[in-house]
């Protein structure tokens, strides 16, 4: 049997290795929102995953140090917004620490269950939080889709190589 290069003794992978590998992985871009005690909160997520069709479940990750975590940790419902390629500024705003995420020019309204719903997105969903699973320095939030609107126009925004990108023809 021949040893595979780079597969020496078993040891934990580094954070740098994980980040370097995932820079090569293209992911869709979403914004997760919730109603917090002091107003709406939200963050940009590239960890959104469809989990189950029946019941309709999805998941996303959120860091326990994120400014939105206290509200998401207690929210009964969250908003999930699939961003279009025209929304790279919105994605950047919700990713930036200390930004006024719901100030102008962000278009939003209070939606069902009090969840902040963003305007101009490709699709939005209101989801009931089912479970929060600790996972290292993050939590994985499992949520059931309650209602939404998948009818927005445009093409998806992607995150790849450390930046927001559009699909190429």
Output the keywords.
Pnp Oxidase, Chain A; 7-stranded antiparallel β-sheet; mainly beta; single chain
List the helices and strands and how they pair.
Blueprint: H1 15-22, E1 27-28, E2 30-36, E3 39-45, E4 49-52, E5 57-63, H2 69-74, E6 77-82, H3 88-95, E7 108-110, E8 116-118, E9 123-135, E10 138-149, E11 157-160, E12 163-166
Antiparallel strand pairs: 1-11, 2-3, 2-6, 4-5, 5-10, 6-9, 7-8, 9-10, 11-12
Give a description of the structure.
- With 169 residues, the protein is mainly β.
- The protein has a single domain (26-149), classed as Roll (Pnp Oxidase, Chain A), CATH 2.30.110.
- 13% of the residues lie in helices and 43% in strands.
- It contains 3 helices and 12 strands, in the order αβββββαβαββββββ.
- The protein has helices at residues 15-22, 69-74, 88-95, and strands at residues 27-28, 30-36, 39-45, 49-52, 57-63, 77-82, 108-110, 116-118, 123-135, 138-149, 157-160, 163-166.
- A 7-stranded antiparallel sheet has the order 3-2-6-9-10-5-4.
- β11 (157-160) and β12 form a beta hairpin.
- The longest helix has 8 residues, at 15-22.
- The mean pLDDT is 92.
């Amino acid at each position: 049997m021949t040893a595979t290069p780079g597969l020496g003794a078993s040891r934990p992978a580094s954070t740098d290795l994980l980040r370097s590998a995932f820079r090569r992985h293209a992911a869709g871009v979403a914004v997760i929102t919730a109603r917090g005690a002091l107003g709406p909160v939200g963050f940009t997520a590239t960890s959104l995953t469809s989990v189950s069709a029946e019941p309709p479940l999805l998941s996303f990750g959120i860091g326990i140090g994120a400014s939105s975590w206290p509200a998401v940790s207690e929210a009964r419902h969250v908003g999930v917004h699939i961003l279009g390629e025209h929304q790279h500024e919105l994605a950047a705003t919700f990713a930036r620490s200390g930004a006024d995420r719901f100030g102008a020019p962000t278009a939003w309204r209070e939606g069902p269950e009090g969840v902040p719903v963003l305007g101009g997105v490709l699709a939005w969903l209101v989801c009931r939080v089912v479970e929060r699973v600790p996972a290292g320095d993050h939590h994985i939030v499992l949520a059931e889709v309650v209602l939404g609107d998948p009818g927005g126009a445009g093409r998806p925004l992607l995150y790849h190589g450390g930046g927001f990108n559009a699909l190429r023809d």
